[in-house]
Amino acid sequence: MFRPLAADMTPANPDEGTPVSIKIRERLVAARKRFNANDNIADFIEPGELELLLDEVESKMQGVLDSLVIHTDGDHNTKNTARRVAKMYLNEVFKGRYVEAPAITEFPNAEHLNELMIVGPLTVRSACSHHFCPVIGKIWIGIMPNEHTNVIGLSKYARLVDWIMGRPQIQEEAVVQLADLIMEKTQPDGLAIVMEASHFCMSWRGVREMDSKMINSVMRGVFLKDSALRREFLSLIPGRN
Fold first, then answer.
1. Residues 95, 136: contact at Cβ < 8 Å?
2. What is the pLDDT of residues 50-104, one digit of tens each?
3. Less Cβ around it within 10 Å: N or C end of the chain?
4. In this predicted model, what pLDDT tens digit does every residue of 173-225 receive, in sequence order?
């Protein structure tokens, strides 16, 4: 009986059958790039791989449902839950990990604007990286421009917030990431951010405290040095006094 040689059994493509998540992870490790929950990894995902990753996450999620002893084949309510959850994580809730930063059109500060500008409240939709429970809240952004500051449209701040918050986050780190991004995009004299959010990991589980919220802030540049400017920004946030 004919038995194929070992060489005959070697796949034409050595990567064939390797889960796409492992391929992406190997690229990140080779580049010595961090891939924590709140990191963006879009540069290491090749065209078509997000669809393959969706299939992989669906398969793993089905395993979770099986381990929870949920009869998805017989339960019409959970029949396609694994696919729905995979799409929710990759295409919606954690989209900020897998897609590039939104395109932001920047304009020169032709009129040399140098007065305080506040944008907000902008809606925060995120999830805590400890339990993947929703984090829902508001953000206010204060900008102190100078003649060299890049001016961006008001809606673009909302897009940047959505991109940063669309990842598993803890609130303290999220506002710092957002501040770094806005400073890079606009180069102002000062930046101030205040975030107020409800954490479902505290209200839906654990102590189940329904009314508790977390408020934190980041101050950069002149907002750190000028206490009067800082007070002006905080006093102009509606409902925060």
1. no
2. 999 999 999 999 999 999 999 999 999 999 999 999 999 999 999 999 999 998 8
3. N
4. 999 999 999 999 888 999 999 999 999 988 888 888 888 899 999 999 999 99
pTM above 0.70, yes or no: yes
CB 64 within 8 A of CB 77: no
Bond preceding residue 121 cis, omega within 30 of 0 = yes
Instruction: Report the alpha-carbon distance of residue 96 to residue 38 in Å, rounded.
Output: 8
With tokens 């409800």, the residue in question is 198
Residue 144 · residue 116 · CB < 8 Å: yes
CB 55 within 8 A of CB 21: no
Amino acid identity, position 111:
E
